[in-house]
Amino acid sequence: PISDFVEVNLIGEYIKDITIYSLSGSIINKSQYNSQATLITINTQNIQNGIYLLSVNSDINSYSKKIIIQH
Length: 71
What we know:
two-stranded antiparallel ribbon
């Protein structure tokens, strides 16, 4: 489980945006990036405990992963 931070690291790809969704589809957190970032750290301290969907869009692909936040 994730407590305070989640790191997204894409090797060879630039992160365009990262969105955290609730399981009901509501956007909990969305961040967009214009730099050539391959490693991003997201603060999850203000997100309630639960199961969420982490969605990452890069310049090449899109990725989704279920995450569990537990403080």
